[in-house]
Design brief:
The chain is an alpha/beta fold. It is 31% helix and 23% strand. It contains five helices and nine strands. The chain has helices at 15-26, 52-59, 112-134, 153-158, 165-170; strands spanning 2-8, 30-35, 43-44, 49-51, 67-73, 77-79, 82-85, 87-90, 93-97. A five-stranded mixed sheet has the order 2-1-5-9-8, sandwiched between helices. It has a four-stranded mixed sheet with strand order 3-4-6-7. A hairpin with a 2-residue loop joins strand 6 and strand 7 (82-85). The termini are close together. The structure holds zinc ion (ZN) (2 copies).
């Protein structure tokens, strides 16, 4: 297995460090790619949001056997019946919608450095979570486990960045 992270439209400062962390966690190579891709087909003008499922279907052609692909998109996404999602997974691909993970989404930030660190922590958790789904992991009832479902940004901040013991056991990571 390998992980491909596709940054759609923009780079994220300090992102390499997150890719390295994922590589250590999943014990596989992680590569990064930056693409410019117009998201017009998944845009829903009536709600000014992007349909995460439609996006993943459109990006299906990028998928390669043996590769788990994570798309990082800065736009705000939804997936019916949810008003918004931090991410979504379908088969071997997943998307993380970064808009609502950015502290600036919730208002002005006083400490840019602290906000940047928090943003990266959230990105890491959501990448772990969605990659977990691509590996067949369901949601976990342990609120501290990274596989716990997050209904709000408070849930994201409450949970840890790692898999609980049960999830760790269920996850089949080749050594
Ligand atoms: Zn989930
Ligand atoms: Zn768990």
């Amino acid at each position: 297995m390998r992980i491909l992270i596709v940054l759609v439209g923009r780079t994220i400062p300090g992102f390499n460090e997150l890719a390295d962390k994922l590589s250590r966690t999943f014990k596989c190579p992680v590569s990064l790619e930056l693409i410019d891709f117009p998201l017009t087909r998944s845009f829903r003008s009536e709600r000014k949001q992007y349909d995460a499922g439609a996006f993943l279907r459109e990006m299906g052609r990028f998928s390669e056997p043996g590769t788990k692909t994570v798309f990082m998109v800065r736009e705000d996404m939804f997936s019916t019946p949810l008003n918004f999602v931090f991410g979504l997974a379908a088969a071997d691909s997943c998307v993380v919608a970064t808009a609502r993970l950015d502290p600036r989404f919730y208002g002005k930030v006083d400490d840019g450095k602290k906000a940047g660190a928090l943003f990266k922590e959230r990105l890491f958790k959501e990448m772990m979570h969605e990659l977990g789904h691509t590996l067949g992991m369901p949601h976990c009832n342990d609120k501290k486990c990274v596989m716990a479902f997050s209904n709000s940004i408070a849930d994201v901040d409450h949970k840890g960045a790692g898999f609980c013991k049960n999830c760790q056991k269920a996850l089949k990571i080749e050594g």
